[in-house]
From TrEMBL:
Entry's Gene Ontology molecular function annotations: hydrolase activity; zinc ion binding
Binding site for a divalent metal cation 1: 30, 32, 145, 263
Superkingdom per UniProt: Bacteria
Keywords, ordered alphabetically: Hydrolase, Metal-binding
Cofactor requirement: a divalent metal cation
Transmembrane regions: none
Name of the featured protein: Phosphotriesterase
Binding site for a divalent metal cation 2: 145, 178, 206
Length: 317
């Protein structure tokens, strides 16, 4: 297991190992490139085969325009994961991709969850991490987005989150969560650390949807990463509020614990469809952050060094 006292190992991408030192440009810490959430009742919550060319074009353009180097793709079991598609997108766009594993929140749990105890779930994840996803040999490089949907995880979510934490401990992967509307992050952290996973291997998701700087400070002070990962989703939260919350976390001294991304989770968000796309972070939000006083060293920390340190288990210098 990689920990804060060990030299960080290479990233596990869909194309194989990649030294973190080779990632010279920004990283999107929480995205979706291929998913299908239509089973939740929303047929627009898809990024399937017809959308692959648009996804690939966007990533290639961001690589050319902003140096985008890596996408952490957090589509896991029950979300329509397609690691073969991720491999094609990575190859054609020139942007490295890390694939995920684990289970989303309860509404999207596949049947395997209902019939398995925590031990079997843990063993299933470890097998996938060691041997590859869905018979492809493509190994996930992160666990996530491991989900819960309320202030405390439900019974099935406790089992899947505990299994995810145990698998992370056993394999050395880090773990990114889905905290619906930002709620329940502290409960997630408590459960995951109780299963033996150190806080610096945990990213608590969707905290930009929770207007509570005190919770953000508490998560960061404990050593976890605080994900502001729905940037541009104005229907959930305005970017003005996101910026205020991020600045509060930075001013509290936790610049080394913040992660940024856009969480593109339906085809209507793509630039080709008129949405902000994966590039909204670079085109809109980061210029506003710079205008608020952020220098390029801070921007590089938020968009490159922090996500790489999260993935590899390193600690800030």
């Amino acid at each position: 297991m990689t920990d804060r006292h060990s030299p960080p190992g290479p990233l596990r991408t869909v194309a194989g190992p990649l030294p973190a030192s080779a990632v010279r440009g920004p990283v999107l810490a929480h995205e979706h490139l291929a998913l299908d959430l239509a089973r939740g009742g929303d047929r627009t919550a898809t990024l399937t085969a017809p959308h692959r060319p648009a996804v690939t074009r966007e990533l290639a353009a961001l690589r050319a325009g902003f140096g985008l180097a890596l996408v952490v793709e957090l589509t896991c079991r029950g979300m329509g994961r397609d690691v073969r598609a991720l491999a094609r997108i990575a190859e054609e766009s020139g942007v490295a991709v890390v694939a995920g594993t684990g289970w989303y929140h309860e509404a999207f749990h596949p049947p395997e969850v209902a019939t398995a105890d925590t031990g079997r779930l843990t063993a299933s994840l470890i097998d996938e991490i060691e041997h590859g996803c869905d018979g492809t040999g493509i190994r996930p490089g992160v666990i996530g987005e491991a989900g819960s949907h309320g202030d405390v995880p439900s019974g099935p979510e406790r089992r899947t989150l505990t299994a995810a934490a145990r698998a992370a401990v056993a394999t050395g992967l880090s773990l990114a969560t889905h905290a619906r509307l930002g709620r329940g992050g502290l409960a997630q952290l408590e459960l995951l650390t109780a299963a033996g996973l150190p806080p610096h291997r945990i990213s608590v998701g969707h905290q930009d949807l929770l207007d509570d700087p005190g919770v953000h400070r508490e998560l960061a002070a404990a050593g976890a990463y605080v994900a502001f990962d729905t940037v541009g989703k104005e229907g959930y939260q305005s970017d003005a509020v996101r910026l205020r919350l991020l600045l509060a976390l930075l001013e509290a001294g936790h610049a080394d614990r913040a992660l940024l991304s856009c969480d593109i989770s339906r085809h209507g968000y793509l630039a080709d469809a008129g949405g902000g796309g994966y590039g909204h972070l670079f085109r809109s939000f980061l210029p506003r952050l710079r205008a608020a006083g952020a220098d390029e060293e801070l921007i590089d920390g938020l968009t490159r060094r922090n996500p790489l340190r999260f993935l590899t288990g390193g600690e800030p210098r």
